[in-house]
Amino acid sequence: MAELSQGSWRAMIPFALGLVATALVGCQGLEEPVSPTPSASQTQSSSPVASTGATASVSPTTEDADQRDLRLAGEAVVEYWAEVDQLAASPDSSIDDLKTVAADQAFAQQRVAVDAYRAKGWTQVGTASVTSVRATAGKGANFTVSACVDVSEIDFLDEEGESQVNPDRPDSQRFSYTVEKRNTKFLVVRDTLKGTPC
């Protein structure tokens, strides 16, 4: 086995710590989000890695192409929610920005929703937290991804600053998505909108 130079090992530390955090979530049922973007959080199951305290001893691991695709499919859902949050919070942003993370039914559905918010003069405050992301391979270039989405920090304000959120809205639900790999991009192509308790 080839030895890593000290500089190579240091470069792998953030990746290795990310694996530790996701492994702990997947193996122990804890939900400690890892932030891939400023406006969304994500956790994914990984290989078991034991850790206690503030520091961890981690051996370097590699992921094969299938593992990488599963990870990227899950990350696509997190990026999708981050972009939806951005569009709903910024009335002047272009809905076409959503095309970087969504296509087909998911894109059309969110375009209708964002356009409706904007027509009513509503602006989103706060962001969704996406956790417990689980991706499985489907047929061809498709992946099924489920994720727990917590919207408790999101409010929609009208032009007078009054909340328009239904007080009976569930704070957190698990949703299912279809993600498709198109060339090297992973796009959310279906968003069922059917939530179940997390």
Structure description:
The chain is an alpha+beta fold and 198 residues long. It has one domain (6-51, 59-197): Nuclear Transport Factor 2, Chain: A (Roll). Helix content is 33%, strand content 26%. Strands 4, 5, 7, 8 and 9 form a five-stranded antiparallel β-sheet that branches. It has a two-stranded antiparallel ribbon with strand order 1-2. Strands 3-6 form a two-stranded antiparallel ribbon. β4 and β5 form a beta hairpin. The longest helix is centred in the middle third of the chain and has 25 residues, at 65-89. The radius of gyration is 18 Å and the shape is globular. It starts with 5 loop residues before the first helix and ends with a strand. The model is unreliable at 1-59 (pLDDT under 50).
Helices, strands, pairings?
Elements: H1 6-28, E1 34-37, E2 40-42, H2 65-89, H3 104-120, E3 123-125, E4 129-137, E5 142-150, E6 155-157, E7 172-182, E8 185-191, E9 196-197
Antiparallel strand pairs: 1-2, 3-6, 4-5, 5-7, 7-8, 7-9
